[in-house]
Write a structure and sequence with these properties.
Strand content: 15-25%
Number of helices: 15
Shape: globular
Number of strands: 20
Radius of gyration: 23 Å
CATH class of the largest domain: Alpha Beta
Helix content: 25-40%
Largest sheet: 10 strands, mixed
CATH topology of the largest domain: Alkaline Phosphatase, subunit A
CATH superfamily of the largest domain: Alkaline Phosphatase, subunit A
């Protein structure tokens, strides 16, 4: 009999008074999120040099989510994970939230840890946030996390001082702290400490998003020495931007990033292993859901060092190498070890799936875009996907969009390059079931399918808020970063109670939204429908 069912039955058998005093039998939840981990860089996908025993252990003792998809870049995946909603409608689909930006995910959106928190769970986040920092409304402590230890931004470095744009970025619940040691191991220290110090009578939800193995790559000396002689024998990615960057590296006689990347991945795996060992030592591994996945495909370009082959492309692409990621879930009380789930699953599905697995009510008032796949995973049952799943990226080149729509049968990848007075569209159509590695472009043979899917992508892009994030490599001219990012968010008591209304008067907002048409939405959470050449909100 499965553990959770057995525990509940035993509590009830002891009688009402004893059952009321019994410990909460609901499972704990631990989410490890890697940053730019390559598809082929883990042992259970065939990697023989880089050692990943902890990640491999999760897959061996649980289920590999073999067709799991994240967005092509960082912030959109984190938004999808936290909300169960499409990053396009949230306004964070095209680019990540840069330090000089003031946006985040709308405070009206309900985050996954808020549901667990409302259900009595202890909640903590240890690591990288990257979902808004300019106002306290965007801060992790306002989005369902009792405890936040880590960084608001990305690329803070692996050794002190941990900084974003030369401003210190390491805090504990809004208070700046000094971190000592290698960042990945510092996060493991805190995760271990928090688990051991928890209230053992209540379940917990722990989110641990690493900066590893994101650039700029750094690792401890012993791990650098371990992989110093590693050869870079990666094959062609079949992605033009990635291969151009690799060519430039060779022409400039720069060393390969592959050995350092391997050391960074090894360190991250060791940190994951320490947390798994802590679960074992605390006697709670059996009743803890452990999930590990990457926020996008590996950074296979010159400075990234990752490998996604046989998948095509990498981070930023909407080919499989940019969006199909390493993922595995372990829950010994419910999941058979050594299994594989082959249905399409995305980061948007995690909120409804994990809350269902834990028996936690969801507190959403907006409709979710993700699917609850818990029963299918537990029963090893295939779930077909006929409706399209969409992803987009404008990173790293402004105005160069990578787009896709796909289901079980077809996948369309669009590369759209926009100039000041030009638009160039390249369509790549693949039959997913027959060509999972995207070798044969069938666009010319099936123009009707291309037209249908291109229209679907076009309509999907229209739900993007007009002021949503776009990709920016540099800040506005003259912008300055704070000395300490913990002091940066505007406190709640200095903010107005409601979101700002914007410039248009209330009576004009619907007609102006309609006039914007395909340019985007003025009205939040608007699903437009075509009317007289525009798009009214449903």
């Amino acid at each position: 009999m499965l553990l959770r069912t057995a525990l509940l039955a035993s509590f009830l058998a002891l009688g009402p008074a004893t059952a009321l005093a019994a410990p909460d039998a609901r499972p704990n939840v631990v989410i490890f999120l890697a940053d730019d981990l390559g598809w082929s860089d883990v042992g259970f996908h065939g990697e023989e040099v880089i050692e990943t025993p902890a990640i491999d252990r999760i897959a061996a003792e649980g289920v590999e989510l073999h067709r799991f998809y994240s967005t092509p870049i960082c912030s959109p995946t984190r938004a999808a994970l936290m909300t169960g909603r499409d990053p396009m409608r949230l306004g964070v689909a095209y680019g990540v939230i840069m330090p000089w930006m003031t946006n985040g995910v709308h405070p009206s959106e309900h985050f996954m840890p808020q549901s667990f928190q409302a259900a009595g769970y202890q909640t903590a986040m240890v690591g990288k946030w990257h979902l808004g920092h300019a106002q306290q409304t965007y801060h992790p402590n306002e989005r369902g996390f009792d405890h936040f230890y880590g960084h608001l931004h990305t690329e803070v470095g692996y050794f002190p001082p941990f900084a974003a744009q030369n401003g210190r970025d390491f805090q504990s619940n809004g208070t700046s702290i000094e971190g000592e040691g290698y960042e990945t191991f510092v996060l493991a220290d805190e995760a271990e400490r928090w688990i051991k110090a928890r209230d053992a009578s209540r379940p917990f939800f722990l989110y641990m998003p690493f900066i590893a193995p994101h650039t700029p790559l750094e690792a401890p000396d012993d791990l650098l020495a371990k992989y110093a002689d590693m050869e870079d024998d990666r094959e062609d990615t079949r992605s033009p931007q990635t291969e151009q960057s690799r060519l430039m590296r060779r022409l400039l006689l720069q060393p390969s990033a592959r050995p350092v990347y391997a050391a960074v991945v090894d360190a991250m795996d060791r940190a994951i292993g320490r947390v798994l060992d802590t679960l074992d030592a605390e006697g709670i591994a059996e009743n803890t859901i452990v999930l590990v996945f990457s926020d996008n495909g590996g950074a296979a370009y010159a400075t990234g060092g990752a490998d996604n082959v046989p998948l095509r492309g990498g981070k930023g692409d909407t080919f499989e190498g940019g969006i199909r990621v390493v993922a595995a879930l372990r829950y010994p009380a419910e999941i058979q070890p050594g299994t594989r789930f082959d249905s399409i699953m995305s980061a948007m599905d995690l909120f409804p799936t994990l809350t269902a697995a834990a028996g936690v009510p969801r507190g959403n008032h907006f409709d979710l875009d993700g699917r609850n796949l818990w029963n299918a995973i537990r029963e090893q049952r295939h779930v077909p996907r006929e409706e399209y799943l969409f992803f987009a990226s404008e990173t790293p080149i402004s105005g160069y969009f990578n787009l896709t729509a796909f289901n079980d049968e077809w996948k369309l990848v669009q590369q759209v390059r926009t100039g000041l007075m030009s638009v160039q569209v390249t369509n790549n159509l693949f039959r997913t079931s027959e060509d999972p590695y995207e070798y044969v472009n069938l666009a010319q043979e099936h123009p009707e399918t291309v037209a249908e899917m291109a229209k679907a992508i076009h309509q999907w892009r229209q739900i993007h808020p007009i002021a949503g994030t776009r990709h920016q490599l540099v800040p506005p001219p003259g912008w300055r970063a704070p000395k300490d990012w913990a002091t940066y968010p505007i406190p709640l008591d200095l903010l107005q109670d409601a979101p700002a209304p914007g410039m248009p008067p209330p009576h004009a907002i619907r007609s102006l939204d309609w006039m914007h048409g395909e340019a985007g939405r003025l009205i939040y959470d608007c699903q437009p429908y075509e009317f007289l050449g525009g798009g009214f909100c449903k």
